[in-house]
Design brief:
By secondary structure, the protein is of the alpha+beta class. The protein contains 4 helices and 8 strands; from the N terminus they run ββααβββαβαββ.
Length: about 150
């Protein structure tokens, strides 16, 4: 477990028992949330790259999940409960994820809605750069902006 210095908030690897809380965060964060079954599969297949944040009372208030793809990683999802946003929790989650990838990974990629300015600013502040658009990426037909963070060379 890692203490963030953000008012006693802690980061740790997710557990199966966290899935209910993670699903609730997903539902409160996205118009088309991932189903709990998909999140459970992500956790099962990627236990070393699925993190949660806990408030002092143990309540799960955020999460991020990524998939390692040989020498790259794909940040699949990140979300924080609305009342805890804009406090640096999302940034702390991404930093812990990147740190956990160690020297195995040379880049991290993600997709974000072009109009999601807050998320784009977060990723840019961590060094992610826009790589182009993926047309029709989302269920409603909207495009996604692909972003990448180049890490060290192997």
């Amino acid at each position: 477990m890692v203490r963030t210095g953000l008012n006693g908030i802690r980061l740790r690897l997710a557990h199966r028992l966290d899935l209910g809380a993670i699903s609730k965060i997903e539902e409160l964060s996205f118009p088309d949330p991932y189903p709990q079954k998909l999140l459970a599969n992500l956790l099962h297949e990627n236990p070393k790259t699925f993190f949660v944040t806990e408030a002092q009372d143990g309540t799960i208030i955020g999460y991020c999940a990524a998939v390692e793809e040989v020498t790259r990683a794909h940040l699949i999802s990140i979300a924080v409960l609305p009342q805890y946003r804009r406090q640096g929790i999302g940034k702390a989650l991404v930093r812990v994820l990147i740190s956990s990838l160690g020297p195995r990974v040379t880049e991290v990629r993600l997709e974000v809605k072009g109009g999601n300015i807050e998320a784009r600013k977060l990723y840019e502040s961590l060094g992610f750069r826009s790589e182009g658009l993926i047309e029709g990426y989302y269920g409603n037909g909207s495009a996604a902006l692909e972003m990448r963070l180049k890490l060290h060379k192997r």
